[in-house]
Amino acid sequence: MKCWLPPAGIALGIALALYALLSGSSDEDLIRERLEQLEAAVEVTGPGTNPVMRGAKVKGEFAEIFTKDVEIRIPELTDTTAGRAELVGLATQAPSWYAQVSVDLGSLEIDLDEVAASAHVFGQATLRGTKHDGSPHRDTRTVSLRCDKIEDKWRIASITVSPKQDGSPAP
To answer: What CATH number is given to the structural domain containing 151?
Structure first.
């Protein structure tokens, strides 16, 4: 009478294992989540942002997003070539340049190298903002990121932004 219990238990165990395996976040999903975290960290939602509070928030978020010695190539903004602290400083200054600003990284492509626990993330990123005088600003650039999986967490190890094409000053 109870001979159906062992096969049912095995079937249930297999179903749960498959569910756990298939519903877990893929590396690509985890990298996209990291990119969304970066978008949120650099966003400026309005005037009156306290620079000290913003700096503390950005520093905390960037500690999760970037490696400490992240390589940086962002023409027009910095000559520095490495360091998370430099990026924190730039992101903290954003409210002095814009009343509102957001960055869209959603269309970037991800090329995983599972053997090296690394990924090349590349494509067009768009900055949309409103300057303090009310004028709109939009800038689309090619970006290239290298993400490394460190202690099971994806972090951005290098960021390269293409130079501005029209010669106008940034930001």
So the answer is: 3.10.450.50
